[in-house]
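__Protein archive entry__

___
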Amino acid sequence: MISAKDLKNPHVVRRDLLASLVVFLVALPLCVGVAVASGVPAELGLVTGIVGGLVVGLLPGSKLQVSGPAAGLTVLVFEAVKEFGLSTLGPIVLAAGLLQVVLGLARFGRWFRAISVSVVQGMLAGIGLIIVLGQVYAMADLEQPGSGLAKLAGLPGLAIDIVTDQEALTAFGLGAGTIAVLLLWPKLPARARVVPAPLAAVALATAVASLAGLRPAVADVNGLLNAIDLPGGAEFSRLADVAVIGTVLAFALIASAESLFSAAAIDRMHDGPRTDYDKELVAQGVGNTICGALGALPMTAVIVRSAANVQAGATTALSRVAHGLWLLLFAALLPAAVGIIPLAALAGVLVHAGCKLVPAKEFGPLWREHRGEAILLAITAIAIVVTNLFEGVVLGLLLAVVKSAWETSHVQLTTHELTGGRVVVTLTGNATFLRLPRILEQLEKLPQDQPIELDLTGLRHLDHACRVALENWARRHNNAEIEPVTIRQ
């Protein structure tokens, strides 16, 4: 929240207002681009950005995080709009927001930090791959296939269309040029980089298209008020649908995880107060509840805008609130400016953003040092591409639990023979059903013509399945003329 003390300090106010302009310039093309890629009117992305600034910016949680429409939810929103219709998006977002508020009030915010980092990275990588695969079609002003596998299968045909169709080639050139500017911009002198890279890339592509007399596809702009469609009772009745409930859960889970992981990253970038995760989760929920009531896109805290906020020198929440005000003024006073931006350029921005979600540089070291985590990341990402976002994340979470259970169920079996031929078998560690095949395999190799004592006193944990299996083995292992195996617990 903004304190009166901060507002009385002209140095703080001046610095944070300047930072807010930087964040606004970064957020503007991303708000529009995410909306278009999600299959909704461009203005709805601006509505979410405005709510993220003016509402969430005033709530406690993180002082420097900036919220708005995120590339990470693009795939899920696109699928929801395609399956349930744009009119149902508002109730879905509103219900997800209310769920976030409840989770925050119940102090579940801190538990999102317990989600496996590899699953989150795999989720973001899968989302990034879907964004890239989809937006390369948008770069050529062509319709993208529905599923991830269809997008992959359609790439050869896309290449042929680009080469043989002059309009597709022109649009793709604008998108590729946008990506080139984004890649080269960080290498320019600091004075030139005062303008944020996304804004510079989109502005240059728009200027080239205008000066060259090109006619690429552009966003359909109807004005802010015309784009807002308040959901009614009929739309809210769709929340009783099981498929819609699953989408609500996916929205809430993914938006919360992305926001709180972003908070952890931003906390490492500054020396100010740390994020209160429960309050931040409530703030994100309030923002999504309002966005849902307005029929707009869902929001998360966005690392790109948040990092720009910190790097621009912001120290209070004034910067993120003011950036929402600049978005509101732009949407109210200059809506037609959005209608001249080539969709191919916005697609180029999202292809670049999607590539940054794929942890290509981190995968090699992760594979060398923690191979199991790398496999978990890859499986989650591939599952998202092959199936869908929700099923891919659920699979990743289940595999993370199984992996954790497997790694913690270490058990060691040792044998030594006492004087007189008695064999003592000692089990130590954690004996669970996951290790049962290995345990029984070793026990069944023991001689059947000697007295055997099974010592379980060194076990920290023995689950029911293991206990029953060991008792059954003890009863039937030795020959009839030898005394049965004894168990010491």
